[in-house]
Amino acid sequence: MRCHKCDERAVIRMRQHRLALCRTHYIEWFVQQTQRMIEKYHMFTHEEKVLVAVSGGKDSLALWDVLWQLGYHAEGLYIHLGIDEGIQYSTESERLAREFAEQRGLVLHVINVAQVHGETVPEIARRTRRGRDKPCAVCGLIKRHDMNQAALDLGFNVLATAHNLDDEVAFLFGNVFHWNLEQMRRQSPVLPESPGFARKVKPFCRFSERETAAYSLVRGIAYIEDECPFAEGSKQLLYKDLLNRLEEVEPGAKLRFYLGFLEARDSGQLILPREEEIPLELHPCPRCGQPTTSPGLCAYCRLFESESLGTLGTPVQPK
């Protein structure tokens, strides 16, 4: 298989694009496509500061690398969750993120959940009813809160995450399957900033997981290859598997599904509830100051109100 732009051996073939590229031209194409997505969706400019949420995985480190190559002011944020039971997942992820930043002279901010709250995410999950059944829910709540707070505290205009096409279509599939119209309304490459919330962007939303992995490999980026232990049994992994099987027999199906959804929604063909039609009264949490619909503390702060707190502040009954 030869590169479509030169006669060198191709390192990747992308059937949905009918394109095969060598190492040099693939890196060039990947970086250019990222810049196109940034411009197409008006994500940010070179005058703005971007905080990149990094996990030590292939997607987030690839995103940081691309933004660095494109000359953006991009710093990293790593949240050490304390998921170290068995494979030292969080410790190894942080090591790789630090190594990546040091090699490029970039700034990495680190939040250690155990140092801030006195307990790790697995410990928090085990003492909450929701966390016992779905530890990813507690983990996601903590990460979303801390990423947003860090962006605001550090003075960043934009918070960038490395959600790829596989992540987006799995999320969309789940929302369509369960008719979660509110989540479908909010799913977008860009969530505009608002009082108490940083602007959130997804520059990799049109790259498949295979494409981001290929970029990391040809760029020589060292990343953690293990899946997070909390991901085991996740419905998102099930949805990804189903969609990958469809992609095998119908190349480009995932990209058409995602882009078709965005086009239908933005053109008005798909009628979803507008934000003003959903009565949400936001006010600052009295403890952390972030916006919440709760009459008291936000869901994040209620996790740490007492060691006996369960889901959204509901006491867990001792067994």
TrEMBL record:
<keyword id="KW-0067">ATP-binding</keyword>
<dbReference type="Pfam" id="PF03054">
    <property type="entry name" value="tRNA_Me_trans"/>
</dbReference>
<feature type="domain" description="2-thiouridine synthetase TtuA-like N-terminal LIM">
    <location>
        <begin position="2"/>
        <end position="27"/>
    </location>
</feature>
<dbReference type="GO" id="GO:0005524">
    <property type="term" value="F:ATP binding"/>
</dbReference>
<dbReference type="InterPro" id="IPR054306">
    <property type="entry name" value="TtuA-like_LIM_N"/>
</dbReference>
<dbReference type="InterPro" id="IPR014729">
    <property type="entry name" value="Rossmann-like_a/b/a_fold"/>
</dbReference>
<keyword id="KW-0808">Transferase</keyword>
<keyword id="KW-0547">Nucleotide-binding</keyword>
<protein>
    <submittedName>
        <fullName>ATP-binding protein</fullName>
    </submittedName>
</protein>
<dbReference type="InterPro" id="IPR035107">
    <property type="entry name" value="tRNA_thiolation_TtcA_Ctu1"/>
</dbReference>
<dbReference type="Pfam" id="PF22082">
    <property type="entry name" value="TtuA_LIM_N"/>
</dbReference>
